[in-house]
Specification:
It is a single chain. The protein is an all-alpha fold. The protein folds into two domains: 1-32; 34-240, MetI-like fold (Orthogonal Bundle), CATH 1.10.3720. 82% of the residues lie in helices and 0% in strands. It has ten helices and no strands. Helix 9 (200-210) packs antiparallel against helix 10. The longest helix is centred in the last third of the chain and has 38 residues, at 158-195. The radius of gyration is 22 Å and the shape is elongated.
Length: 247
């Protein structure tokens, strides 16, 4: 508790200086809204439900893309980690696709799916796939060989060995990739909404900025930061409950 209080001291001082500078006229109110006005604008947005609807739209797209990428990345990463020859065949294709910026796929996704959830989630999934895939490959390769020998000795099906031996043994490292991916999912979802998709918090921030409502824009931005922290914390807590995980 004391550590958290000490950690909050710097933000509290900065907010106090921000409020004082705004009231003294040192900071322009058209770009640096007062923190007190930001709190009021955020409270009104929560009261009328607009920020809640936008939050659900953003989280829905981010988690849909993240869930697909996590499932595909862990499964494919486990296969490639267990089969070095297959990895050598697939590796060049992965290396060719991975550097493509996910944002560059927005025109293609828009052409294929149009505006909406599917388009946004597809771009998020592409961005989140690579950290999960690469970390899973490395994690599976680092598993104690005797554990894999045990699975082969027991003639366990791949699904059972994946669930009972491979994932528990590698999860502490796979979680690193998942935590990176969940942060990427929110970043990419917001970016897609700001650039092209008229939904969610990103679009709401653009509308607030164009409407000369810096108080509302800052309120949504701060709320977005809290969402990112909450997603990461939720993933960490869920991983700790999995046997063998130390996230």
């Amino acid at each position: 508790m004391r550590r958290r209080i000490r950690g909050a001291s710097i933000p509290i001082v900065l907010v106090a200086l921000w409020e004082a500078g705004s009231r003294a006229g040192a900071l322009p109110n058209d770009t640096f809204s007062r923190p007190s006005d930001i709190v009021v604008a955020g409270a009104r947005a929560f009261a009328d439900g607009t920020i809640l609807v936008a939050t659900w739209q953003t989280i829905e797209a981010a988690l849909a893309g993240f869930a697909f990428a996590a499932a595909a990345g862990v499964l494919c990463g486990a296969l490639l980690g267990l089969a070095p020859r297959l990895e050598r065949i697939v590796g060049p294709t992965v290396d060719a696709l991975r550097p493509i910026p996910s944002i560059a796929l927005m025109p293609l996704a828009l052409l294929m799916f149009g505006f909406g959830l599917t388009m946004e989630a597809s771009v998020v999934a592409f961005a989140c796939l690579w950290p999960v895939l690469l970390v899973t490959i490395a994690a599976v390769r680092g598993i104690e060989p005797r554990l894999l020998d045990l699975a082969r000795t027991l003639e366990m099906p791949f699904g059972s060995s994946l669930r009972k031996i491979i994932l528990p043994a590698a999860l502490s490292r796979i979680v690193v990739g998942l935590r990176v991916a969940v942060g990427v999912s929110l970043v990419v979802a917001i970016t897609v909404e700001i650039v092209v998709n008229p939904r969610g918090l990103g679009y709401g921030m653009i509308i607030a900025s164009q409407s000369l409502r810096p108080d509302l824009m800052y309120a949504q931005l701060l709320w977005l930061g809290l969402l990112g922290w909450g997603l990461n914390e939720a993933l960490s807590r869920a991983a700790r409950r999995w046997p063998g995980a130390q996230a």
